[in-house]
Automatic annotation (TrEMBL):
Species this protein is from: Colwellia maritima
Domain Transposase zinc-binding: 9-98
Transposase IS801/IS1294 domain span: 138-303
Protein name listed in UniProt: IS91 family transposase
PANTHER family to which the protein is assigned, alphabetical: ISSOD25 TRANSPOSASE TNPA_ISSOD25, TRANSPOSASE
Residues annotated as signal peptide: none
């Protein structure tokens, strides 16, 4: 059982009484799913061993993307798909961060604001690529909503291959400058201007009653090798909850202590909060229903499989690339307690 879910099970009624006005419907759906995860005996998965005759039944996982004890297979499958998309070029990680003054909008209207962030960053990167003559580019955007202290801190990590495909000249890949993608100061200026303009034009978002916006916004752009380290870093935060159980180092009826890495000193630090404050801190990162937190654009999108294979063959013609129709989908497995071989799910049972 997850430590966070155990705490939630013990204190969710007190949380509802104390912070009812701060719990959104999306948070309540997440709470219900996590409390039912692997607990509902009427919904069980059936498992059979391929090597011996052992069978087993286990309560179903909730499958909620915020549940800390679900989605491990989803994480590995996402990373496998991203590896298959990789191009043999240098990669960069571009991070666009919202200023503190806009976090109140993230609490009030998260879906509208996060959709706006994806739209603006996409347009900024495509325009910068056009100015540099790169042609069509591709990138993967991942929404993170928390800082290392788990405070609300919305930002987008975007993994970008350094180069683009020129559709005007058949079979031509345009290499980016070595060790350089885009100027982060220029990116930050355009990012700031377009976000503020998009909010002004939005039917429900408003800058009224907000503090004055800072003149300088934060955008980071750094080289990440061939892209794999960045993809592994992002995969750790996609489907495994906001705070791993291993980082919750102490708790009792009154408080919870967790560890994190201080971004300034790069050393491990600790933070202690009352239990209800801690639960609310984690639950504020539940994303709105049907909001995609990972999006692929351009050459890395699902609709560009054939073009991406063409580029891969252009850059490394002798490599055995995975073709679009041969993608591997892995089945959920577990280890047989009798013979230690793999067991596979053979069905779902629902009893009354």
């Amino acid at each position: 059982m997850s430590t966070f879910i155990d705490l939630l099970r013990q204190h969710h009624q007190a949380l509802e009484l104390e912070y009812s006005s701060e719990l959104s419907n999306d948070m309540r759906r997440a709470i219900y799913a996590m409390l039912m995860c692997k607990m509902a005996q009427q919904r069980q998965s059936l498992w059979a061993c391929d090597h011996c005759s052992h069978h087993d039944q286990t309560p179903l996982s909730c499958g909620h993307r915020n549940c800390p004890q679900c989605q491990q297979n989803t994480t590995s499958q996402w990373l496998t798909r991203q590896k298959a998309k990789r191009l043999p070029v240098d990669y960069f990680m571009v991070t666009f961060t919202l200023p503190f003054e806009l976090r109140v909008l993230a609490r009030q209207q998260p879906k509208a604001l996060y959709q706006l962030m994806f739209r603006v960053t996409s347009s900024v990167l495509k325009d910068f690529a056009t100015r540099q003559g790169l042609g069509n580019i591709g990138f993967t955007s991942v929404l993170h909503t928390h800082s290392r202290r788990r405070e609300l801190h919305p930002h987008l990590h975007i993994v970008v291959p350094n180069g683009g495909y020129n559709p005007g000249r058949r079979k031509q890949w345009r290499k980016g400058k070595k060790g350089y993608l885009f100027n982060k100061i220029a990116l930050a200026k355009v990012w700031r201007a377009r976000v503020l303009e998009a909010i002004k034009q939005h039917p429900t978002l408003s800058l009224d009653n907000l503090n004055k916006m800072p003149e300088t916004w934060v955008v980071d752009c750094k080289k990440v090798g061939q892209g794999l380290p960045a993809l592994k870093y992002l995969s750790r935060y996609l489907y495994r909850g906001v705070l791993p159980d291993k980082d919750i180092i102490a708790y009792d009826e009154q408080s919870v202590t967790f560890r994190y890495k201080n971004s300034t000193t790069n050393k491990t630090a600790q933070r202690t909060l009352p239990v209800l404050k801690f639960l609310l801190l984690i639950l504020q990162h539940v994303l709105p229903k049907r909001l995609q937190r990972v999006r692929d654009y351009g050459l890395l999108s699902s609709g560009a499989k054939k073009l991406r294979l063409l580029i891969q063959l252009l850059l490394m013609p002798n490599h055995n690339w995975l073709t679009p129709n041969n993608e591997v989908i892995t089945r959920a497995t577990r280890i047989c307690p009798c013979c230690q071989h793999k067991m596979h799910c053979i069905g779902i049972t629902r009893t009354r």
